[in-house]
Specification:
The chain is an alpha+beta fold. Helix content is 33%, strand content 17%. It has one domain. The protein has a two-stranded antiparallel ribbon. The longest helix is centred in the last third of the chain and has 10 residues.
Length: 48
């Protein structure tokens, strides 16, 4: 069974960049790691 997590990313307006942030992982995705990676890329993110 797979799990889908959604995040809101502020400031990302390019469809190409948005598509590049699609992350496919197994179960047990680490919210903190996702949010840190998005922040490190220069955007603000929160769990939707």
């Amino acid at each position: 069974m797979s799990t889908t997590n959604e995040y809101r990313v502020s400031g990302m307006t390019c469809g190409h960049c948005e598509a590049g942030t699609l992350i496919v992982t197994g179960d047990g995705i680490d919210d903190a790691a996702v949010l840190t990676a998005v922040t490190d890329a220069g955007y603000q993110a929160s769990r939707a």
